[in-house]
Amino acid sequence: MNNLDSLADKILAGLDHKNTAREEALKLSRLLVQHASKTIRAVHREEWDQADELLGEAGQIAQRLKAATHAQPELYSAGYAQDALKEYAEAHITRALAREEDLPDPDTLGVEYAAYLNGLGEAIGEMRRHALDLIRRGEIERAERLVEAMDEVYGFLTTVDYPDAVTNGLRRTTDMVRGVTERTRGDLTTAARQERLQAALRDFERKFGDSIS
Asked: Which alpha helices (DSSP H) does the chain contain, by range?
């Protein structure tokens, strides 16, 4: 057993390298999630320049994450890394939906399809908040278009019929999307009725005032 020392040196060096890569991946994953969260907050405030700047920085972090795990693919596939990439995709999708633009391509973002789909679903939760903000501002038409987009996303997600092991639990996300979309549609319907009633009252008051004068 003359080779034990050399084997030990090789194995420990390999584990040390893997642990270093893991620590770097964890750090970058946390940083990516922070940038995604800040981007979504900027989108809700409609601070588009800041959102775009944050997304640009997030893209660089995502590339660093892929580079850090290139030699350790099991680290790239780990839950924390894929969760961070899901949040990154969600931030991009949230911006696109809020701006009524085309959705980003997962291949362009460099995000695995399962992570992208879950990010797409979670972006719908953010769109409920955005729709409610629009309703409060009286921007009913924009809110209607947003709810239509939410419904389209839900319709698409229902067609993704694969085991959870393949989609990382997309069915739960799809169920969430259904509930969020239905509640938002209900809120929008109520707001639209109130707007029509207020418009009718204003019209009546104007006509009544004209008849008196």
From this structure: 4-44, 48-68, 73-76, 79-98, 106-109, 113-136, 140-157, 164-167, 170-212
